[in-house]
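hey m, so remember when u said the tokens were messed up on ur end? i reran from scratch. heres the input so u can diff it against urs
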Amino acid sequence: SYSYASSMPSDSCGKKSQNMTECVPVPSSEHVAEIVGRQGCKIKALRSKTNTYIKTPVRGDDPVFIITGRKEDVYLAKKEILSAAEHFSQIRAARKDIARLLTALNA
């Protein structure tokens, strides 16, 4: 059991060194709200799904998420955040197009 105990510190050090942090900017605070979800439900789900710590930007700060975890987990979380941001941008653009169309029809 002694060899197991002596190997523990190097194991935990190895795991720690694998951790990385990455900043993921999104276009606006509206995007942040959409990605975080009501009462943080979406971001909490993403944290547990990807096993990462995701710091959510505070309103008034730059819309940048900070993700910490293992390299592959951080990559996955980043991909999901950017994908959600892109999706929200497309929805917003479509809404603007519809509004323009309706305005033109009513004119």
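this time it looks ok to me. The first strand starts at residue 19 and ends at 25. if urs says something different then somethings off w ur setup not the seq
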